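Can't attach files on this board, so I'm pasting raw text. These are the components:
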Amino acid sequence: VIPRATISRLPVYFRVLMELSHMEVSLVSSDELAARSGVSSSQLRKDLSYFGEFGIRGAGYDVGFLLQKIREILGIHREWRLVIAGAGKLGTALARYSGFAQHGLEVAALFDIDPGKQGKMTGKIPVLPMEDLTGFVQEHDIQIGVITVPAQAAQGVADLMVRAGLKGIWNFAPVRIEVPDDVIVQYEDLVVGLLTLSHHLSRRMR
Amino acid sequence: VIPRATISRLPVYFRVLMELSHMEVSLVSSDELAARSGVSSSQLRKDLSYFGEFGIRGAGYDVGFLLQKIREILGIHREWRLVIAGAGKLGTALARYSGFAQHGLEVAALFDIDPGKQGKMTGKIPVLPMEDLTGFVQEHDIQIGVITVPAQAAQGVADLMVRAGLKGIWNFAPVRIEVPDDVIVQYEDLVVGLLTLSHHLSRRMR
Ligand SMILES: NC(=O)c1ccc[n+]([C@@H]2O[C@H](COP(=O)([O-])OP(=O)(O)OC[C@H]3O[C@@H](n4cnc5c(N)ncnc54)[C@H](O)[C@@H]3O)[C@@H](O)[C@H]2O)c1
Ligand SMILES: NC(=O)c1ccc[n+]([C@@H]2O[C@H](COP(=O)([O-])OP(=O)(O)OC[C@H]3O[C@@H](n4cnc5c(N)ncnc54)[C@H](O)[C@@H]3O)[C@@H](O)[C@H]2O)c1
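---
Top answer:
Structure tokens for the assembled complex are below.
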């Protein structure tokens, strides 16, 4: 099994390689790729070794080849379509973020129970009533549901997404959600990042 | 040194303990605390062992005592004041998020270079011109700067924050930023969470 920490560094390597390819750089040394990614060169080599032998001895890595390989590992060599439940502050910020489209991740629609939000557009994306979620997921070949509703509504929304046939859920609500074994939940707790920072700051300031 | 993965689980334990304390539960077994936090009981015991001996043999943990202890470890037994640079989609969503205040983290002001945004309010928080950032940080005892500007502006904003005396930076822009050794940067890359999900989904669907 590939360690989770290794998986979480791949998008960083991917982003750096994208920058290099835009600069028309075709070969990059492991030292340079590591420095631009903010890791040690031995960590980079260890991470990549899980996926096979890529480096050309003495010359470094072929940028185009490594990009394609990482795309396959991250599953972004294909398109993924998403729906977002909860068209509030966070849901609308995510819907309009152009960074997802660069990786073949497309937000197809937002859903909300608030009639005042239904029928509106966020950028080019429609806000639809929650009752329409199941039909929309099945007609538009959606794979991923994003939860940006208040904590107490999150489990109910997850149940609806599972019944609609979604296999992946990206959950921003600060609660654990129960789903069947064939559904994957990725938690995103923004508070954790800030509390990690406050922990390191308070250790320094003592 | 405490492993980063342990630090990142503490806010989860903290949130569960807060829920228990609201339910007026004063003792909790390690099995129950572990189950509610989504970890194994041996992982929970191992995480807490870094900070001392808390469990009462056979009776579990004292909820109030453990809450206070985790507050101290996370550095949230004190107030932290934040400013956010970039009053766009993400910056305004973060500014109005009530979840930070629960942990003693207060957003004092937003800053932006766009004159159309300056002078407006986001909830009760003012949007001020970037030129005022240094003066504001020094007059209002601010410790943390949040970066939600486009990637190409991030390093410039970080330099300004360092000059203003900020010691902690929470960076959402998808670039690495260079800072002196006495400044701590916490990266938050929302794309990483989504790409981790697509990785696990594509492995399942093969
Ligand atoms: N705003 C942030 O920066 C931030 C940061 C971290 C975590 N979160 C979490 O993300 C979630 C959303 O936060 P927000 O700040 O966008 O809140 P918000 O109140 O702005 O938006 C919530 C939206 O969900 C809708 N909603 C409520 N119940 C629903 C249901 N059953 N089905 C469908 N829609 C429903 C509401 O009508 C509203 O539009 C919360 O769980 C919050 O804890 C937000
Ligand atoms: N929106 C999201 O969900 C999301 C997700 C992941 C990452 N991000 C990252 O967060 C950052 C902000 O994204 P957004 O979607 O809010 O963008 P946005 O365009 O809505 O907001 C950016 C804001 O920064 C301001 N700005 C630009 N240059 C500045 C400078 N030098 N000093 C001060 N302010 C400046 C702009 O006027 C604008 O108000 C980006 O780096 C983006 O990659 C956003």
